[in-house]
Amino acid sequence: MTAKEKISNTSSAESVDTEAGFLTHLIDLRNHLMRIVISICVAFVFLAPFAQVLFDWLADPIISQGQQLIITGVAAPFLVPYKFAFLLAFLIALPYVFYQLWAFVAPGLYKHEKKLILPLLSSSVGLFYLGVAFVYYALLPMMFKVLPLFAPSSATYSPDISNYLDFVVMMFLAFGFAFEMPIATILIISTGITTREKLAQKRPYVIVGAFVIGMILTPPDVISQVMLAVPMWLLFELGLVLSGVFKKQLKEAGKSRDAMREEERVTSAHAMAAGTSAAAVGATADALWEDDNYAYEEYDDDEHQNLTDEELDAELERIEAEEAEAEASQADADLDKPKEIKDDKSKKDSKPEPKIVSDDDDLGP
Question: pTM score > 0.70 for this model?
Answer without folding.
Answer: no
